[in-house]
Design a protein that fits this description.
About 30% of the residues lie in helices and about 30% in strands. By secondary structure, it is α+β, with helices and mostly antiparallel strands.
Length: about 180
């Protein structure tokens, strides 16, 4: 092979690698954008939300990739924000987000996430939080009442609620950070 042929081959290889590099960058960007839009698993959501305390509207909106709306029931003490209908993986849906932020003073906020879709049994919660204590029981007044199991964490209390109307499936998760 002559000098000219070697130069042409090297140029072709370099051009091909450069072209592949650009193509690969595009593929990587598309994959990263796709991953950014991939719903979280329930347990990724729990880890993300508990690490956002103290809560602000902006932190929670960023965590769930959705806007929250202030509701009219806000009062002189708290701002109430709502959102919902957000898909998670495995067919689980956040049916409602309820965020409460104190208007004045030091307070870390309070967050409740209601769930629908695929049933998450207590055994699944216990696989992630083995040291749960029963902290609430229904009083028999409504099928909306729940049995709650809580885990005391370094950042605050995490509670998992199972409503009477469907006691075998997780209905909500409450995040109550320490002040």
């Amino acid at each position: 092979m002559g000098k000219n042929s070697t130069f042409k081959l090297a140029t072709a290889i370099f051009a091909g690698l450069t072209l592949f590099g650009y193509a690969n960058t595009g593929v990587t960007k598309t994959m990263n954008d796709s991953l950014k839009n991939t719903p979280l698993s329930l347990w990724e959501l729990v880890d993300t939300l508990k690490n956002r305390a103290p809560y602000t509207r902006e932190k929670i909106e960023l965590a769930i990739n959705s806007k929250l709306t202030e509701v009219e029931s806000s009062n002189d003490v708290f701002h109430f924000y709502r959102g919902g209908d957000l898909p998670l993986r495995e067919g689980i849906v956040i049916s409602k987000v309820d965020l409460r932020i104190k208007r004045a003073g030091v307070h870390p906020g309070f967050l409740v996430v209601d769930l629908t879709g695929t049933c998450v049994p207590l055994e699944s919660v216990q696989r992630h939080y083995a040291r749960l204590e029963r902290t609430g029981v229904p009083r028999g007044r409504s099928l909306e009442e729940a049995t709650s199991y809580s885990s005391l964490e370094s950042w605050g209390k995490l509670s998992f609620g199972f409503r009477e109307k469907n006691p075998g499936c997780l209905a909500f998760i409450a995040f109550d950070p320490k002040t």
